[in-house]
Amino acid sequence: MLPVLPLMDMLILAGWSSLAIGFVLKAIAALTRWKPTILTLSPIDFLSIAITAFLFAIALAARTWVAEQQPAVSAQRRKQQTLDAYAALHSADTGAEVSAARGDFAAPAPQATEARVADPAQRTG
Question: Read out DSSP for 50-71?
Fold first, then answer.
């Protein structure tokens, strides 16, 4: 498949170039009595070329975006992202990430430490 991005860049470059050339021709026509043309193209012709190039670039971008959003392409991309996330969860060394992803947010069981004694009769103070 032909890459679309360079074609869109070329259309945008052609649009801005035509707009700049048309502006220069219009500025010359406004500042002097001479009505310049390039290959018999007047400033309004360059404006119409620029508008056409910009519209083609927008249409090509929209068509590319719509083609990428097709259900089959989107489903395949979501499937791959899900498989990647699943593999990342199960490749972790500890099970903490896996249990958090499943929604097991239960607090860990308290363990006996020196500050917390299991038998209340042994408490001092």
Answer: HHHHHHHHHHHHHHHHHHHTSH
At 38-59, the pLDDT tens digits run 999 999 999 999 999 999 999 9
What residues contact 89, with CB distance under 8 A and at least 6 apart? 97, 98, 101
Of 47, 75, 68, 80, the closest CA to residue 5 belongs to 68
Arithmetic mean of pLDDT over the chain: 80
Q: How far apart are CA 50 and CA 60, in angstroms?
A: 15
What predicted TM-score, i.e. pTM, was given to this entire model? Answer: 0.55
Q: Is 35 helix (H, G, I), strand (E, B) or coil?
A: coil
Count other Cβ atoms within 10 Å, centred on residue 76.
11
Contacts of 21 (CB under 8 A, 6+ apart): 38, 46
Burial 7-36 (b: 16+ CB within 10 A, else e): ebeebbebbeebbebbeebbeeeeeeeeee
